[in-house]
Design brief:
Layout: H1 2-17, H2 25-45, H3 49-65, H4 72-79, H5 82-90, E1 128-137, E2 147-151, E3 171-175, E4 181-187, E5 192-193, H6 199-206, E6 212-213, E7 217-222, E8 229-235, E9 254-255, E10 258-260, E11 276-280, E12 283-285
Helix pairs in contact: 1-2
The chain binds benzoic acid and fe (iii) ion (FE).
Fe (iii) ion is lined by residues 104, 106, 153, 216, 218.
Length: 290
């Protein structure tokens, strides 16, 4: 047994030593630590050759299903909590700044600009939702002209980019006014599954986990001199809040979405046939470099 342990430990040190001549100290640190942790895992669970082969097959399938829209490796990172942990490390709490959460795979660079009070649904199906709030720095001063990117799934649980033709819908961007205020129409968020027809979905099934994400509305907010915030808001009372498949929910990001009766005039004087909802989300940006 001692001999076996020595064989295994020697191999770890030999692999680690293979990075000795690496000219990039950070790369050397990353590779060394990765190898030590990987070997610890393999040795701790006494990985069988069949299990090793299954892992290789899994990664191969993840590669095959990945394309410009579908990113199975990010899904894997998300469902193992690695994305959220990286966000936690790189977006440390700063005073009263709004907390960050997972980016997800469905942001696109070229969303349409909407005016303050405009509608970013662009015909996507769902209950209308009036969203308003104020963007400030941590000292409470208003941030005028902050760029607010918003994106969400429609009521069928699909993002525009998941549909054939990929007409842009349920996404857009706008800018806060001189007092930092913003307002727009979107859709009341509903729960939807992460793409689960690939190896990550099969992994979730095998371990008895649901692919559902808690209902949410994505935001990315940026302003000069501040740390760009990538986050979501989640409706209070959503049944999946604490079962989110990518571990993205933080208590501070749960907001009251208040359902309004049909025909009640909206804040901008519209009369809507069906029910609609309202939510307020005040956004506090941390200083750049914090
Ligand atoms: C999303 O919220 O859009 C998302 C996040 C992580 C994985 C899949 C989808
Ligand atoms: Fe999402």
């Amino acid at each position: 047994m001692r001999e076996q342990e020595a064989v295994e430990a020697t191999l770890v040190e030999t692999v680690v030593a293979s990075f000795d001549d690496c000219q990039d100290p950070r790369l050397q640190e990353l590779m060394t630590s990765l190898v030590r942790h990987l070997h610890s895992f393999v040795r701790e669970v006494r990985l069988t050759e069949e299990e090793w082969a299954a892992a290789i097959r899994f990664l191969t399938e993840a590669g095959h299903i990945t394309d410009a829209v579908r990113q199975e490796f990010i899904l894997l990172s998300d469902t193992l909590g690695v994305s959220m942990q990286t966000i936690n490390i790189n977006n440390a709490a700063y005073e009263n700044a709004t907390e960050a959460t997972v980016f997800g795979p469905f942001f696109v660079e070229d969303s349409a600009a909407i005016a303050l009070g405009g509608d970013l649904a662009f015909g996507a199906a769902g209950e209308p939702c009036w969203v308003e709030g104020r963007v400030t720095a941590t000292d409470g001063s208003p941030l005028a002209g902050a760029r607010i990117e918003v994106w969400e799934a429609d009521e069928d649980g699909l993002y525009d980019v998941q549909r054939d033709g990929a007409q842009r819908a349920a996404r857009g961007h706008l800018f806060s006014d001189a007092a930092g205020n913003y307002r727009f129409w979107a859709l009341t968020p509903t729960p939807y599954p992460i793409p689960d027809d690939g190896p990550v979905g099969r992994m979730l099934t095998a371990v008895g986990r649901s692919p559902l994400r808690a209902s949410h509305l994505h935001f990315m907010v940026s302003a000069p001199g501040t740390r760009t915030l990538v986050t979501h808001i989640f409706p209070e009372g959503d049944p999946i809040l604490w079962d989110d498949s990518v571990f993205g929910v933080k208590q501070s990001l749960i907001k009251k979405f208040e359902r309004q009766p049909a025909a009640k005039p909206t804040p901008d004087g519209r009369v809507i046939d069906g029910t609609w909802s309202t939510v307020r989300f005040d956004i506090v940006l941390a200083p750049a470099g914090s």
